[in-house]
Amino acid sequence: MKKEKREQIWNKYDKKCAYCGCELKYKEMQVDHIESKNLHLRHKIEGVDRMSNLNPSCRQCNFYKSDGSLSLFRNQLSTINDRLNKIFIVRLAIRFGILKYKEFDNKFYFER
After folding, report:
1. Could you tell me the pTM of the whole model?
2. Which of 76, 75, 73, 69 is nearest to 53 (CA)?
């Protein structure tokens, strides 16, 4: 990908991850395909690298979203508290007030 296009993607949301909103350094930014490359290849859809399909992303969000859809990623984040509650040490940390949950409001940074 050309540097100019990569810089446009980086600036798309003020140098922040489109999903969690954390500050992104240019060299650490990953470019996420909103609709995955695999989806485009399987269904022979064109435009996988169009600007509207590219988001700046931090490593964690890009890894966790993987090649899933935005709705799948949203669902994964919405159920994270329930999944964490299955881990004994997390339940213990909550009991002692070391850890507190915050509900995911179902909105990504780019949707606010």
Report:
1. 0.88
2. 69
Q: Are 82 and 42 in contact (CB under 8 A)?
A: no
5, 14 in Cβ contact below 8 A? Answer: no
Cα R_g (the chain), whole angstroms: 16
| 2 & 48 share domain | yes
The four Cα atoms 29, 34, 35, 36 give a dihedral, to 10 degrees, of 20
- Percent of the chain whose predicted confidence (pLDDT) is above 70: 91
Domain that holds residue 92: 69-102
The model's pLDDT over 30-67, given as tens digits with 9 standing for 90+, comes to 999 998 877 655 555 667 789 999 999 999 999 999 99
Residues 36 and 79 in one domain: no
Structure tokens at 105: 């409001």
